[in-house]
Specification:
Blueprint lengths: L1 E2 L6 H14 L6 E3 L10 E6 L2 H7 L2 H15 L3 E2 L3 E4 L9 H11 L5 E4 L2 H4 L3 H14 L2 E4 L8 H34 L12 E9 L5 E10 L13 H14 L4 H10 L12 H9 L6 E4 L2 E4 L17 E4 L6 E4 L6 H14 L27 E6 L4 E6 L17 E2 L2 H13 L2 H44 L5 H33 L4 H14 L7 H10 L2 E5 L5 E6 L10 H11 L1 E7 L13 E3 L1
Parallel strand pairs: 1-5, 2-4, 3-5, 3-6, 6-7
Antiparallel strand pairs: 8-9, 10-13, 11-12, 14-15, 15-16, 17-18, 18-19, 19-20
Bound molecules: zinc ion (ZN).
The site of zinc ion has 8 residues, from loops.
Length: 611
């Protein structure tokens, strides 16, 4: 006898089998031990019932008796090992013993299979069809105690109809379960599911004479209260109250809370260690202030999950809310006040788990303007450390899973904002610098001319090469394929260069169309210069930084940084690609270097002075 879960003891099953064989007087052919299982002459028996069915009103002895009787009618010998019992749902065929049985069938190691009822095989007509088709294909007999067993179309059709009816029963059962729970809630009880962490599910029930269980009332009880009526230290209820107090009133992080609980040796409901995530789940669970709802979510299959065999279980792994009118709410004893719940949730959301998406609320001048000295990507802004300071660090540093992780691990303190701002103020008040910026603006025109000539040179070089290849091909230095490939490559180069020239010419035209630009820029820069830069707000600072197109490139040791200023006032400037190509020539740049040795970067930003 193979058994799926420890749902029923082995002794109990053995006892049932023996009894079944005895009742129908077939001890010689049912549940026989010591058969030579390498021979394909034995029959199997398959029984299934869900755990609920087994718990409430197990029909296992009756199913076994039926099977023994059918085996006797067929004069089939059923070895002990070939009595298969699954205590799972009939919605799919992904059941441990069903899988074993199907393997025996596919490998033709069995003569036939007996089912006490058609719906024990499956409640899904298609699955029955598939199973029957497999068995027919390898020539193995199937025998149902409650359905016509012929392989003629009429018998097959009747079986399909019975299976369809079974499917309706299954759907009705599921609806009844939800409906029953809703009914219980409406009558003032709690639904029959596990209570939330911090509570225990209790019920007052009686077993009616017909064997079913009648629930008079059901409720959640606080787990657990001490003699003083307050949650007992270390109990789940106590943990819930602590979590809300820590997060809501003391503004602690989930990390901190998890660490506290683990240090106190308190385990989660599953007996594991606390993690920030498990703490978050409790903070965001909407029941601890005393009001809860049933029928709020449903599970749906994840469309991105690979599907298995068509007869396998479709796993509903995603939780999705149902329409609000389907919710039913019920009351439970509150553990914390609604006010504290709100506070804790607000804190948690505001902190954005301390980092990440919500981090945009960190005021930072150099977001996307400070570049990692090793990989060159923009650094990210994060809050960190006990003092909640702001840092920049490489965006790829913590992403060890990223395709190109970066190992630059130093943190740049947020105080660099002020250093850079100080420099900007100094430049703006310096007339010579403003003039220099304007000069560089003018010289950009010349640079664009140079870039266009460079591209033209590329084109003529590529054309010359093509001509050479064609000559070489005629003098048979290349074979046809090689020549073709080289020429295609060169033609691509030419096409790219032509596109680039067009783009550059466009920028020149845009420039020339507004001759007043230089003057306007001059005015704007002067206006910025005349501003009271010390009294600017953060938003104004941010505006100036972006108008000047500030970009900061620190050195790896963080002792120096290069600040690029690409004057970027109102009109569209040359885009950044030119800056990348020859930033030294085109853009004004100012280099800052530290006067003193830079020590520990975490808390001591390097002192910078401009050269
Ligand atoms: Zn990096």
């Amino acid at each position: 006898m193979l058994q799926t879960r420890e749902v029923i003891s082995r002794e109990q099953l053995d006892h049932y089998i023996e009894k079944a064989a005895g009742v129908v007087d077939y001890e010689a052919g049912f549940g026989i031990k010591g058969c030579d299982l390498t021979k394909p002459i034995w029959w199997g028996v398959y029984i299934r019932q869900s755990l609920e069915e087994q718990a409430l009103n197990s029909r296992l002895p009756d199913y076994l008796r039926t099977c023994a009787q059918e085996a006797k009618k067929l004069s089939a010998i059923v070895p002990y090992e070939y009595i298969f019992y699954d205590a799972v749902t009939g919605e799919h065929l992904e059941r441990p013993n069903m899988i074993r049985l199907r393997r025996l069938v596919a490998e033709r190691r069995i003569a036939g299979v007996i089912f006490p009822a058609l719906d024990r095989l499956s409640r899904e007509p298609i699955h029955i069809g598939i199973f029957e088709f497999e068995a027919q294909y390898v020539g193995i007999q199937l025998h149902y105690a409650d359905a016509p067993n012929g392989s003629d179309p009429m018998s097959q059709m009747v079986r399909m109809n019975i299976a369809s009816a079974a499917k309706f029963v299954k759907l009705a059962n599921r609806k009844n379960a939800v409906g029953g729970n809703i009914g219980r809630v409406v009558k003032g009880s709690v639904p029959a599911h596990r209570a939330a962490y911090g509570y225990r599910y209790r019920r007052d029930a009686e077993v009616t004479p017909d064997g079913s269980v009648h629930i008079r009332s059901a409720w959640w009880e606080i787990d657990e209260l001490g003699p003083d009526g307050r949650p007992l230290w270390g109990s789940p209820a106590w943990v819930v109250v602590q979590i809300f107090t820590w997060v809501g009133e003391q503004g602690r992080t989930f990390h901190w809370v998890a660490k506290q609980l683990n240090e106190k040796g308190i385990k989660t409901a599953e007996g594991r260690k606390w993690s920030p995530n498990t703490v978050a789940k409790i903070v965001h669970r909407e029941c601890y202030s005393g009001s809860h709802a049933y029928n709020v979510n449903s599970r749906v299959p994840n469309p991105n999950r690979p599907l298995g065999d068509i007869t396998a279980e479709v796993r509903r792994t995603l939780l999705r809310p149902k329409p609000q009118q389907e919710w039913v709410s019920f009351q439970i004893p509150p553990l914390v006040s609604e006010d504290l719940c709100q506070k804790a949730r607000k804190n948690a959301i505001e902190r954005g788990r301390g980092r990440g998406k919500q981090g945009k609320s960190i005021q930072s001048l150099l977001r996307n303007r400070l570049f990692c000295p090793r990989c060159g990507r923009p650094m990210v802004v994060r809050r960190n450390g006990h003092l909640n300071r702001v840092y920049y660090h490489c965006s790829k540093y913590f992403q060890t899973w990223a395709e190109e992780p970066c190992n630059y691990r130093r943190f740049i303190p947020g105080t660099w904002d002020e250093l850079v701002w100080g420099d900007i103020c100094a430049w703006l008040t310096d007339d010579a610098w403003v003039e220099q910026q304007l000069m560089s603006e003018q010289s950009q025109d010349e640079n664009v001319g140079k870039l266009i000539r460079l591209q033209q040179l590329r084109i003529s070089q590529a054309r010359a090469k093509i001509a050479k290849i064609q000559e070489g091909f005629e003098g048979s230095i290349y074979n046809l394929d090689e020549a073709k490939k080289r020429i295609t490559d060169l033609q691509e180069t030419i096409a790219k260069a032509e596109v680039e020239i067009q783009r550059l010419q466009k920028t020149v035209r845009a420039r020339r169309s507004s001759t007043a630009d230089i003057n306007a820029t001059r005015e704007e820069l002067k206006a910025l210069r005349d501003k009271n830069l010390d009294a600017t707000t953060f938003e104004e600072k941010l505006d100036i930084v972006s108008r000047l197109g500030i970009r900061v490139y620190p050195s790896e040791d963080l002792k120096a940084m290069r600040v690029l200023c690409e004057v970027n006032l109102d009109r569209g400037n040359l885009d950044a690609r030119i800056g990348e190509m020859k930033s030294e020539d085109i853009q004004a740049n100012v280099e800052s270097e530290s006067a003193t040795e830079c020590g520990k970067v975490m808390f001591n930003p390097p002192v910078l002075s401009r050269l």
